[in-house]
Amino acid sequence: MNGYMYRDRSDIIRLENLTTLETKIRQIRSLHTEKSIQENEIIDLFVEALSAHGKDQNQIRQTSQISRILGESLGLGMKYCSRLEQAARIYDIGNIIICSDVYEKDEKLSFEEFEIVKEHTRAGYDILIAQNFLTTDMAAVISAEHHEWWNGGGYPRCLKEKQIDISAAIVAVADTVGALYRERPGRKAWEYKKILDYIKTRGKIQFNPDVVEVFLINQKIIEEVLRTDLEAIENKWYE
């Protein structure tokens, strides 16, 4: 973990989750010598870990698919967008060090709690960059920068405008859409029209305006992605 020291708050930080994850990664690497197999297995492990920690599987799928749609609409190329789709599934792996109860609180986080929660960006970067695959390298950048704002008002480094990697700028929009579309503690799910209006007004403030533009262009297909239930997909059978 690059020697980074996390805050001593056992009520919020769960470093044992990180230890368990690292043990499973070592097991995968010892079982498989081929890098492509290692990469696929580790990505699946990260998705499983996120799901076990409370990340909604539908939201993981939606963020991933929406990110690819936005990337393709921006003309970023098929190989890049394919990698982006996978990276968007796992960029939030740093959240496993944060106690899930924190995210389920009805009341607003205290200043100190929020400062500690911000560390999930650093944790995610460290976990992902250590894997040394193209997809996890991209996911590491997304983890580090998906809370940066176009106007420089985000965290952790207060990057602004084109300083923010386009992959992170894309996922920031995709993940926000997915999050607002579902009910959370203390908040009801938003209607899609309200989400559209919100994303539109946040261009040049929170979000890259080019990403906002292609989101609005693709709003109908993105709505279909949001309305598609993961369970229905998994239970569908073919002749």
Summarize the structure.
The protein is mostly helical. The protein has helices spanning 15-31, 35-52, 57-73, 78-90, 100-103, 111-117, 120-129, 134-145, 166-180, 192-201, 209-217, 219-227, 230-234. The chain starts with 14 loop residues before the first helix and ends in a 5-residue tail after the last helix.
Task: Walk me through the structure.
- This protein is mainly α and 239 residues long.
- It is 61% helix and 0% strand.
- It has 13 helices and no strands.
- The radius of gyration is 18 Å and the shape is globular.
- The N and C termini lie far apart (47 Å).
Helices and strands, with pairings:
Layout: H1 15-31, H2 35-52, H3 57-73, H4 78-90, H5 100-103, H6 111-117, H7 120-129, H8 134-145, H9 166-180, H10 192-201, H11 209-217, H12 219-227, H13 230-234
Q: Tags for this entry?
A:
single chain; mainly alpha; 13 helices; 61% helix; 239 residues; 0% strand
Which value, in Å, is the CA radius of gyration? 18 Å
Strand fraction: under 5%
Largest sheet: none
Distance between the termini: 47 Å
State the helix count.
Answer: 13
Overall, the morphology is: globular
The ordered string of helix (H) and strand (E) elements is: HHHHHHHHHHHHH
Low-confidence stretches: 233-239
Strand element count: 0
